[in-house]
Amino acid sequence: MSYVDGFVAAVPESNKDKFIAHAKIMAAVFKDYGALRVVDTWGDDVPEGEVTSFPLAVQKKDGEVIVFSWVIWPSKEVRNAGWQSSMEDPRMNADTNPMPFDGKRLIYGGFDMVSDV
Fold first, then answer.
1. Chain Cα centroid distance, residue 74
2. Residue stretches of the chain with pLDDT short of 50
3. Cα 93–98–103 angle (5° rounding)?
4. Are 54 and 8 in contact (CB under 8 A)?
5. Partner residues linked to 5 by β-bridges
6. CB-based contact 64:16 (threshold 8 Å)
7. Where are the domains of the chain?
8. CA spacing 20 to 30 A to 73: which of 23, 24, 62, 96?
9. For residue range 34-62, what is the model confidence (pLDDT) as tens digits?
10. What is the pTM of this model?
């Protein structure tokens, strides 16, 4: 079964175009190293929670929008190799492709896919 990396971040509204450009580069890199699909989304209906929520998880500030992204890999083994190669790829260099958001508030994780309907 496939393997999925998921990401949630808060991006300044003014950085939407920068986020899209950054995401396109990231997607190309991940696809070059084996990813099957890369999806990036810009929050539209992301409610504030009282106990838990995406905004609370990433400490969203005024003027920021929640983004939710995921990468689907054929397997965890392909993901591990692809991730390592991606991190060494010059296109991922922070000087040439800086994150348009506070990376300290990015949450992410890897997941075994158990259903895909």
1. 17
2. none
3. 105
4. yes
5. 71, 110
6. no
7. 3-112
8. 96
9. 999 999 999 999 999 999 999 999 999 99
10. 0.93
